[in-house]
Amino acid sequence: MVLDERRKALEEQFFQKENAEKLAKLRETKEREATKASLRKGTGMTDEDVLDKLVELNLSAETVEALSLVPLVMVAWADGSMHDREREAILHGAAGKGIEDGSASHGLLVNWLNNKPNEDLFSAWESYIHALLEHLTVKQRELLAAQVVERARDVATIAGGFLGIASISGAEEEALARLNKAFAAS
Q1: In Å, how far from its chain's centre is CA 103?
Q2: Neighbour count for residue 90 (Cβ, 10 Å)
Q3: Where would you tag: which of 28, 41, 83, 141 has the fewest CB atoms within 10 A of its CB?
């Protein structure tokens, strides 16, 4: 009788521990998927491998969102001024990526749009990219680079020239080249 009670207690303890481990694993999986969904929405990235790597590196959507805007800001300010159409395009794009008015990322972005950030921000972004690229495959690097540079090029063309002629200034081309170089440096 005593042996049966102890056996039952031992079984209950074993199953309780096993269930707790399964619950913890389920929570971890749900958190991981929620983070990936948030990153997907905030960055527009769809490549599952890149998203998995960002989650593995413990990067939040807010961090990646803010850092993903730096190239856009850099290109918009490249010619020394922020044009209204560039500002509107960046804000519209940010809203489309889920950066809500009043959020920390939005406030940071508005500050960058109103006041040209100093060179330290761009250097910090380049350092972040170099560190991130060390953890990505060649394919993941190429996908990330293409997406970032394409979005920055879109901002550069927004201010436009006349009838599409000279729509990207020399200074903006230099900024785009700097972005490409940041992705090629690793």
Answers
A1: 15
A2: 24
A3: 28
- What is residue 185's predicted lDDT score, i.e. its pLDDT? 62
What pLDDT does residue 165 have?
A: 54
| pLDDT attached to residue 43 | 62
Q: Given a cut of 90, is residue 115 above it in pLDDT?
A: yes
Joined together, the tokens standing for residue 79 give 């010619």
pLDDT for res 75: 92
24 by Cβ neighbours in 10 Å (0-12 / 13-18 / 19+) ranks as exposed
Strand partners, 162: 165
From CA 84, how far away is CA 143, in angstroms rounded?
29
pTM of the predicted structure, to 2 decimals: 0.66
Residue 140 clears pLDDT 90, i.e. is over it = no
Contact residues for 65 (Cβ-Cβ < 8 A; gap 6+): 42, 43, 94, 97, 98, 99, 105
Contact 78, 177 (CB under 8 A): no
